[in-house]
Input
Amino acid sequence: MANGTSEPRLDLQVNERMFDELMSGMLVTLVFGVFTAFLIVHALLHVAPTAWVFAWLFVNLGIAALRFYILYLYRSKKYKMPSLKIYNYMLTLAAGLVWASLIFFYNLDQPLVMQLMLLMVLGGMPIVSLSTHSHLLMSFLFFSFPSIIALNYWALFETPDLSLNFVVMTLIYTFLVYSTSLRFHNRIKKSYLTNLENESLVQALKNRQVQLENLAYLDPLTELNNRRYFTVSSELALEAIYHKKARLFFFLVDSDKFKHINDHYGHETGDMVLKHIANCLRHSVESFNENNLYEQGQVAEAARLGGDEFIISYVVLDKDFDIENTANALLSKIHQPLEVADKIIYPQASIGVSEAPKQALDVSGLLRLADKAMYQAKKRGGDQVFYCLSTEMPPEKPTDAP
Output
């Protein structure tokens, strides 16, 4: 079923690209056509200066102007491709008919040079338009078929002595032109189809790479960042705080009595509690990141370190940042009642807080201090915040008295 739905979509993309290619080469084709029209009119006026010559030029330039307008609409994206394609087909057919009408100016009494010029234009237009119009085969047929008919008319009625010879030659020419255009069109279409398939494959590989990166850096249960991501991110945050004269806080969050929940209510309930805590951390991070200094680098990130242990890192530029209120608001959020399988559970957690560069200068040191603070919070009964009082900074050397 997937292949059935993807193939029409792929064909539509191929058609869009081929129409784009047709329109991208249209400007040069139109300019060439207008220049050729003036050359032909100049030559015809020397041989047969009639009003029909000016009428032919007027109609030719009018159709060219409309085709220029279609090109403008395409480039300005004012119309969708299906509508423009229909208008393009109509004007292409009209242009083909106008060029084919040159056969009515042909006369055996004209100078040989004039006859050759008209025949060269009628025979050359299908070849010249091949590189542009064959991207859309119908467009090429609309433009070239009137000229081919005109050539066959010339061979049949304007060459009485050698009409059979010229008819055979024009038929062979017709076969060669259309067989070549068909091969050219199919090769171009196949090329675009291959390119789109390759692009689709590359995109699929990129998506797969993103999925693999998510597996490497995301916790599958809570969809928070995992320990590996948090370590890398925190090291970058530590580097940033020295340049910005900021502070880095670690809030190490550990669920209270989580083993009791798993043993008495089951692991599914335990997973629900972990997801609940993760959502609370995510909400806290999102709220913090709405601050006015976010663009300057005041940002928070949350992660699950493993088991029932979570962490939030806060890069703080604001000197008035209230650690206690932020941590207590997080505890209150975690303590909200959670209904799991017709049971009401009130999750609790202990939070240990450490700070850089005041207490440590590396991620492992900050984690150790936050871990010590978190266990102090548990020793005091849990469901509370404890700010680390110790430090891993080297003691300052006493200065000698003068």
About this structure: The chain has two domains: 2-201, 227-387. The longest strand covers residues 247-255.
